[in-house]
Amino acid sequence: MLHRLAETTADKQAITNAEKAVTLELQSWSDLPAELLELIMSCLTLEENIRASAVCKRWYSVAIATRVVNQTPWIMFFPKVGDTYEFYDPLQRETYCIDLPELCGSRVCSTIDGWLLLYRPRTHRVFFFNPFTRESIKLPRYEMSYQIVSVSAAPTSASCIVFTIKHISPTVVAISTCHAGATEWTTVNHQNRLPFVSSIWNKLVYCNGLFYCLSLTGWLGVFDPDDRSWDVLSIHPPKCPENFFTKNWWKGKFMLEHQGELFVIYTCSTENPIVFKLDRNKLVWEEMKTLDGMTIFASFLSSHGRNDLPGIMRNNVFFSKVRFYGKRCISYSLDDCRYYPRKQYHDWGEQDPFESIWIVPPQNFSAFS
Known about the structure:
- The longest helix has 25 residues, at 2-26.
- The chain starts with a helix and ends in a 10-residue tail after the last strand.
- It has helices at residues 2-26, 34-42, 46-52, 57-66, and strands at residues 74-77, 84-89, 94-99, 107-112, 115-120, 125-130, 135-139, 149-151, 162-169, 172-178, 186-191, 203-207, 210-214, 220-224, 229-232, 253-258, 261-268, 271-279, 284-288, 295-298, 304-306, 316-323, 328-333, 338-340, 356-359.
- Helix 2 crosses helix 4.
- The protein is mostly beta strands and 369 residues long.
């Protein structure tokens, strides 16, 4: 009796295994787990994504969700010698090289809509240059103490204003502005209502018609270009653990504007980054545990935020540093609370903050010809 029962059990197990094998054989590529399918789709080019969307309804829905029609920002690397510049696409993980002799002897100050703002210390020449079209627009000469500048719009726009700020004393700053077509810069000294130490480590962004300046110590100043007024806001600096303020900590601080909101990122070589958002109603910096689907591209001179990227790139901060022989951009996931690649805590104190910058290529731009 027991022998027959064992045989019956064995037969049932064999039938079950056979059914499972048949089921596995009948499974198709359309049965891939959603996470794996999304990962694969996010690595495809736009043309490949469109082709994959024709496989089945499920693939179509995932392809549409991960399809990138708009360009992600690229990292532009500035050589210490020579005229060859590298551009890195973090989505396709491709590097492009191009000779730009027009930039010889210049330093980058900022980027806006695919344009670079540059400065030549020897001649005090300030100019815009588009590396994708090779167009150039000159501004009046101006002696910059340091290359921390913000721009309100592309130089081809009538609303383009170039803004920079210089430290005069603990209670006085000099603010200079200019625009394309102007014959000279306008400089006015302003009193600080609160102590505001302006330096090369300032962070400048343009948001909702105003220029915001985050000082070395985290105080926020605001300049209105319409009435040329300046004020230091009564907003306490973002709160960070004490171990964040180690040697060269200011090099790992970033600021950006996105959809009318201000964000600040603090990094540390031994801790995970902290992202803050300015609550305009409470007038406080609030720590963010999630980016709500946004992707941040952070570099010392210019940072960007995007909401139209694949799921695998969302809730991430991408830094302007590439590892593994140009194959992987360092990023930090707020979902996973870790760096990618793993253990890539980056000591910004060891890097020249002016050697790279994020720049947005034109729509549908694939590579340099």
